[in-house]
Amino acid sequence: MARASFLSARLLVVASFAASGAALATTAVSSTVLACGGATYSTRGVVKSFGKDRAYVNIAHERIAGYMEAMTMSFEPKDAEQLRSVEVGDQLAFTFTATDEGRRVLQAVTKVPTRARR
After folding, report:
1. What's the CA angle centered on 70, arms 76 and 16, to 5 degrees?
2. Rounded to an integer, what distance in angstroms lies between the CA atom of residue 92 and that of residue 7?
3. Were 91 and a residue from 7, 39, 41, 112 both cysteine, which residue would form a disulfide, CB within 3.0 to 4.6 Å?
4. Is the model's pLDDT at 30 over the cut of 70?
5. What is the C-alpha end-to-end distance of the chain, expressed in Å?
6. Which tens digits make up the pLDDT trace of 32-53?
7. What structural domains does the chain harbor?
């Protein structure tokens, strides 16, 4: 029953953000189910803001197949070093684990070079 409530809450969040019109271009992403009940996903996005002391980062991400439509969500760093050189506006490629408790924990973060404007 708790799993059904969690999924219902997730769908409500998806519908709320989808209605806001927040979206990025869609690309293929990958996911892996973990033995502990969570799953890992890889995608790209743009950093929008940070929580106090960089306890989390808000990223406007692309659609994550099998998980979530494009929207802005918060992600916790696995360790503080992951966000040390990241700034608002940076484009990232990242992998995270979605836990059964609803947390999204960053596993890997890479800055994506932006194309030079002409």
Report:
1. 90
2. 27
3. 112
4. no
5. 55
6. 444 444 899 999 999 999 999 9
7. 2-111 (2.40.50.320)
Radius of gyration of the chain (CA): 14
Which residues lie below 8 Å from residue 80, measured CB to CB, with a gap of 6+?
54
| Nearest one of 43, 42, 13 to 25, comparing CA atoms | 43
- Provide the CA 55 distance to its chain's centre, in angstroms: 14
Q: How far is it, in rounded angstroms, from Cα 42 to Cα 63?
A: 10
- The model carries a pTM of 0.67
In 3D space, the residue among 65, 59, 60, 21 whose CA is nearest the CA of residue 42 turns out to be 65
Rounded Cα–Cα distance for residues 86 and 16 (Å): 28
At residue 118, the pLDDT reads: 54
At 82 the three-state DSSP class reads helix
